From TrEMBL, chain A:
<keyword id="KW-1003">Cell membrane</keyword>
<dbReference type="GO" id="GO:0005886">
    <property type="term" value="C:plasma membrane"/>
</dbReference>
<feature type="transmembrane region" description="Helical">
    <location>
        <begin position="62"/>
        <end position="88"/>
    </location>
</feature>
<keyword id="KW-0472">Membrane</keyword>
<feature type="transmembrane region" description="Helical">
    <location>
        <begin position="7"/>
        <end position="27"/>
    </location>
</feature>
<dbReference type="Pfam" id="PF01899">
    <property type="entry name" value="MNHE"/>
</dbReference>
<keyword id="KW-0812">Transmembrane</keyword>
TrEMBL record, chain B:
<feature type="transmembrane region" description="Helical">
    <location>
        <begin position="6"/>
        <end position="28"/>
    </location>
</feature>
<keyword id="KW-1133">Transmembrane helix</keyword>
<dbReference type="InterPro" id="IPR005133">
    <property type="entry name" value="PhaG_MnhG_YufB"/>
</dbReference>
<dbReference type="GO" id="GO:0015385">
    <property type="term" value="F:sodium:proton antiporter activity"/>
</dbReference>
<keyword id="KW-0472">Membrane</keyword>
<feature type="transmembrane region" description="Helical">
    <location>
        <begin position="63"/>
        <end position="87"/>
    </location>
</feature>
<comment type="similarity">
    <text>Belongs to the CPA3 antiporters (TC 2.A.63) subunit G family.</text>
</comment>
TrEMBL record, chain C:
<dbReference type="GO" id="GO:0005886">
    <property type="term" value="C:plasma membrane"/>
</dbReference>
<protein>
    <submittedName>
        <fullName>Multisubunit sodium/proton antiporter, MrpF subunit</fullName>
    </submittedName>
</protein>
<feature type="transmembrane region" description="Helical">
    <location>
        <begin position="60"/>
        <end position="81"/>
    </location>
</feature>
<keyword id="KW-1133">Transmembrane helix</keyword>
<keyword id="KW-0472">Membrane</keyword>
<keyword id="KW-1003">Cell membrane</keyword>
<keyword id="KW-0812">Transmembrane</keyword>
């Protein structure tokens, strides 16, 4: 039997809460009995099917999270229409590029979240990730000049910045070249 | 009021259907696998959102909201992963059309690594 | 209202035809799995349209399931292609 590190309950808690919510939503029933049974199953699942815990940054800023969600939805709509337009007008005559973007945060969670958000927005797709230098290689639609590529890079880094402000650790915040403002420093209860 | 909401649901459905059409037209017209990838997976994210909103507007009960949210969250979590896997596999097979790329910064890195490995292998065989 | 649903049905049907054409045409297995994924999304859309038109929620769970099954399918094929190379 493989020896494994015990995960403190507090680290595991967000996962358990999420699993219980999924259980309730799937049954469309949020009665206490159902949720309790869901909690039992969530505990069993989290302990029998072991995965390394996700290391959260230790802070969460609701304001920036909402801002990020709004920006994300805006870009989603804009880019979906753009891809539709490109498909109709340009079609087969399309130039693309693979652009490397180096991110600031070394945290796995933030690199994953940034890559996820970018992949969801039409026009960019993560082809490869270099974890050691936290570099994303993005395949981008309709990028012809180096100016276009620079635009892509700027956009990616702005996405990362929003995510860092929403849930990055304090070291990541410092890396943005600005100290964590005191009143925004939530420690989970902002 | 009810009629207006029903109409709104219909319009949302129409938007979702147009997103499906965008995916389909992209599938037909884009020249290579990776561009088709963009057209195929991405408009679905917005398309599914519009379809789910239509259901929510038509039902007008709170009970369905959690399932709808869950459905969209599942898609948000899974769509980029499958897109990445397919895109990565596509980049590494012969189906990548280099002539369609204006710039490829991953290729330079791969080339560099390959050269270094070749040099190291040469040095090892010389010793 | 009925006209609107007619339009939605026609658009979805046409999109499905485009996707099926790409499945038949290929050229690579990855193109095909991509097109099948789109087809699945269109089926999901049709389920949603049916639920809105007839005012029920019976296929809601199928909708959740399709969003996960499509993922498993494309990841499986992508891994298969990467391993076999």
């Amino acid at each position: 039997m493989m020896t494994r590190q015990r995960i403190p309950l507090l680290v595991e808690l967000p996962l358990l809460v999420w699993l219980v919510l999924v259980w309730g939503a799937l049954w469309q029933d949020f009665s206490p009995g159902n949720l309790l049974f869901g909690a039992l199953i969530a505990f069993a699942v989290a302990n029998l099917l072991y995965l390394p815990p996700v290391e959260l940054g230790g802070r969460f800023n609701l304001l920036y999270a909402v801002g990020f969600a709004g920006r994300f939805l805006y870009q989603l709509v804009l880019a979906s229409v753009q891809v539709f337009w490109l498909a109709l007008t340009r079609g087969p005559h399309l130039k693309n590029a693979v652009v490397a973007v180096r991110l600031r945060s070394p945290s796995d969670l933030l690199v994953t979240a940034t890559g996820h958000a970018l992949s969801l927005i039409p026009g960019s797709l993560v082809v490869e990730v270099d974890r050691s230098t936290s570099t994303l290689y993005l395949h981008c639609l309709n990028v012809v000049t180096s100016e276009d590529a620079e635009n892509v890079r700027r956009n990616v880094r702005r996405t990362e910045e929003w995510l860092i402000r929403a849930m990055g650790s304090r070291e990541d915040l410092a890396r943005l070249g600005m100290p964590a403002p005191h009143h925004l420093d939530g420690r989970g209860h902002q | 009021m009810d009629a207006a909401l029903d109409l709104l649901a219909g319009v949302l459905l129409l938007g979702g259907a147009l997103m499906s059409l965008a995916a389909a037209v992209g599938l037909l017209r884009f020249p290579d696998l990776l561009s088709r990838m963009h057209a195929a997976t991405k408009p679905q994210v917005l398309g599914l959102l519009l379809f789910l909103l239509a259901i929510a507007v038509q039902q007008r009960t709170w009970a369905v909201i959690p399932v709808l949210v869950l459905c969209w969250v599942f898609q948000l979590l899974t769509a980029p992963v499958s897109a990445h896997m397919v895109g990565r596999a596509g980049y590494r097979t012969k189906h990548l059309r280099k002539d369609l790329l204006s710039m490829d910064e991953l290729d330079e890195v791969v080339e560099h690594a390959a050269n270094r490995r070749r040099k190291e292998a040469d040095r090892a065989s010389n010793e | 209202m009925t006209i609107l649903f007619g339009i939605v049905a026609v658009i979805l049907g046409f999109s499905a035809l485009c996707a099926i054409y790409r499945v038949a045409r290929g050229p690579s297995i990855l193109d095909r799995v991509l097109a099948v994924d789109v087809l699945l999304a269109i089926v999901g859309g049709a389920l949603a349209a049916d639920m809105v038109f007839n005012g029920h929620t019976n296929s809601l769970v199928i909708l959740v399931a399709t969003s996960v099954i499509g993922f498993i399918a494309s990841v499986t094929v992508a891994r298969f292609v990467t391993e076999r190379k």
